[in-house]
Write a structure and sequence with these properties.
Tetratricopeptide repeat protein, TPR-like_helical_dom_sf, Serine Threonine Protein Phosphatase 5, Tetratricopeptide repeat, 80% helix
Length: 522
Amino acid sequence: MCQAGFREAAYDALDEAYRNARNLIESAARQFEHSKPDASLAELDEFLRAKAEEWRELRGRLAALEAVEFNSKAIIQQAEAALSSGSLDKVDELLASAEAKLQNEHTLKAIEKQAALRITRGNAALLGEDPAAALAHYRAAARYFEPFDEQKAVETLQALAEEVYEGSLRSLEPRFFVAAELLEDISRTGLVQGDPEQSAKLNYRRGLVHLNAARGSQDENANLDAAVDFSRRATEVPQGTLNEFESACAYIGLANALMERGSRRKSIADIEDSIANLRTARVIAKEVPDAAPMASHVSNSLGAAILVRRRLKPDVSVELRQEALAEFEQAVVDSEEHSTPEVWGAAKVNVSRILAESARDAELSEPERDFLRIRAITGYQAGIETYPVTLFPDRFGDAQFELAGVLFEHSTFQQGQLSEIYLARAIQSYQMAAQVFEVERHPYRWAAIHMCVGSAFARHAQLETTFDKTSDFKQAITCYEEAARVFAELNSTEEALRCESEIKRLHAVSEAAKSETHPSTY
């Protein structure tokens, strides 16, 4: 679905929720405004649209329960009415009442009904921003099956963990810890403890969950160590335990966890270990047809790991840069062969970063540098097409910011109207990045972007083709003032002083420009 389609679906859900559950939406809005009084209208709108989507899913689950043949339809209908009125406590009370009616029925069919009720209560708890209660409900749902069918209990925990994990990848408030706890419950079951294959697959999933939990988590170090530990366990199994595709995934998972930890802790050992595991995965992907689709993932991750090693060992910078570029270019080829658009987009952006840096090499001629920057610009644009802002906001924002930097740099080597065109495009990309990295949630990045926008307007004001230089200087100064204010609030003294210095310089340059335009008659 295209970006516009996702937005249309989100607005449809919010419109439907306002019509059928206005009290719920208004209550959610009040709760949001109370907990985040300084939030922007855009954040409130995003929060309410997410709530509307959760409400729609919960209502669908209630409707599915109503269609099941048991003697609680009236209660389910009352729960639907309570949901529409925004009474989430009443919803839980009614669902608990329906659950109690089935408590004494000891057939598996009855247990499935009880589990469905508990899962729905868990979803309602997530909707009410109570992940701890949701976790308790999800665990209870799985426990219903334990005396009758342990395999079904494990399948329930796995499905719920996957659902929470996927939702957290795109959520403003990730709940990875819920998925981690559910997977830990699976690890305690006899089915997993006595089965090396299932244990390895579970460890792979646990590593992935903890790796994502480490990004933006207060428990970063613990999650990184857990990610490496579980991922390594997934690879340390007897040959033949996993099929070739699963083995390649396990080595890539371990490599990515090591790369993340090594990058954050500046550990050469972790990076070297990451590269070694990726080379193992490459051998599998090349030699086994079933694992071939993982080749693009291997190449892209290997290029990224080489760049981290380059950052930590600058003495071999140029050689490693070319090695990383070759890996990213191979990732583009592999992803085209196996139709993996997300890897293709990421690889395109990675290639563009290296091309933009290469364009600064002193030994190159100016036409060669120009062409490298143009290639970088087109690569960023291609990558952005695979990063819809509604699905991958951070990637979209990062790519727009980096694209803006290359456009700005390219403009400085152009003349006349062409320079003005590239500057205008740079400003547009900076502004799109600022829409993603809003001041409320990403104050430092927002301020840094505004410094860049101010610099772009200042340069535009000094072009011979610029008609209204005064307006450009004014906008540049305003951008630096806004950036200085935010930096001061963050106690980023050096950045704030840099902005103040630039503001003084721009005032002086602006006054000088006015004098040239309107010379004194005396």
